């Protein structure tokens, strides 16, 4: 079948397959298809059925946003809704996020979207960001900008070289696995930031005995050290929900724990 949809969806599927490092045989076996049929689909000689598109997308671990794009390219309606976070449909999600954020007090936590924009935060995180210029926290702020901008937490980070390498590596991996333009633009922006003034180059090497790359911050109350975890929602069927995550910060030493609890006691 030589249609406008066939070649478009085929090229997209080929791009995702190559991005995942799979051969046509690998993907065909996983999806219960034949190499010949998959080759026809990728070359635009065959139009895949709706279920075939979804099955291939599942085995390629393609984000829901891009699965909708594949369906549209193949001539089908999108399968997943994209609900605004402030909509009635997402009320239960907002409630769950609020429980996660407030339940993590007195330690910082933020809810972020797929390009690291902060969509919600708890009081402890707001206190931590109180040392950041307002222009970096407008409309919630962006985690990558807050960490890497020389006027942001970078200027107070005691192990900035470590944190920068880890953050950029994390973001670059996202760019490579999704190909999303907005993530690539964010990476190009933050990777081009200059180092903060008075950066000590001796603070760069990663501790080979450590288990994580910590975030060490100098605050007016004293130095703090954090490790972080990221939680996502299981089995999402909505694009917005699939791209939502909660990053929680935990104290790495007694001093940080004590300072955060003391701050919480003052509120």
Automatic annotation (TrEMBL):
<dbReference type="InterPro" id="IPR010982">
    <property type="entry name" value="Lambda_DNA-bd_dom_sf"/>
</dbReference>
<dbReference type="Pfam" id="PF01381">
    <property type="entry name" value="HTH_3"/>
</dbReference>
<dbReference type="Pfam" id="PF17765">
    <property type="entry name" value="MLTR_LBD"/>
</dbReference>
<feature type="domain" description="HTH cro/C1-type">
    <location>
        <begin position="13"/>
        <end position="67"/>
    </location>
</feature>
<dbReference type="InterPro" id="IPR001387">
    <property type="entry name" value="Cro/C1-type_HTH"/>
</dbReference>
<dbReference type="InterPro" id="IPR041413">
    <property type="entry name" value="MLTR_LBD"/>
</dbReference>
<protein>
    <submittedName>
        <fullName>Helix-turn-helix transcriptional regulator</fullName>
    </submittedName>
</protein>
């Amino acid at each position: 079948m030589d249609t406008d949809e066939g070649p478009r969806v085929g090229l997209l599927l080929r791009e995702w397959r190559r991005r995942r490092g799979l051969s046509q045989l690998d993907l065909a076996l996983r999806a219960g298809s034949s190499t010949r049929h998959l080759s026809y689909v990728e070359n635009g000689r065959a139009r895949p059925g709706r279920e075939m598109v979804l099955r291939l997308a599942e085995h390629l671990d393609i984000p829901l946003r891009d699965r909708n794009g594949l369906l549209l390219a193949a001539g089908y309606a999108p399968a997943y809704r994209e609900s605004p976070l402030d909509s009635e449909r997402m009320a239960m999600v907002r409630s769950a996020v609020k429980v996660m954020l407030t339940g993590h007090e007195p330690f910082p936590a933020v809810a972020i979207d797929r390009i690291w924009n902060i969509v919600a935060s708890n009081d402890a995180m707001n206190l931590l960001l109180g040392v950041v210029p307002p222009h970096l926290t407008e409309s919630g702020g962006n985690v990558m900008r807050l960490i890497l901008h020389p006027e942001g937490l970078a200027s107070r980070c005691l192990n900035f070289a470590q944190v920068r390498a880890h953050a950029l590596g994390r973001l670059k991996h996202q760019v490579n696995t999704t190909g999303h333009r907005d993530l690539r633009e964010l990476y190009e922006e933050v990777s081009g930031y200059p180092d903060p003034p008075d950066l000590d180059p001796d603070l760069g090497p990663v501790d080979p005995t450590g288990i994580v790359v910590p975030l060490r911050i100098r605050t007016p109350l004293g130095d703090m050290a954090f490790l972080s975890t990221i939680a996502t929602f299981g089995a999402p069927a909505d694009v917005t929900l699939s791209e939502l995550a909660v990053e929680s910060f935990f104290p790495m030493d007694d001093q940080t724990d004590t300072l955060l609890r003391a701050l919480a006691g003052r509120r």
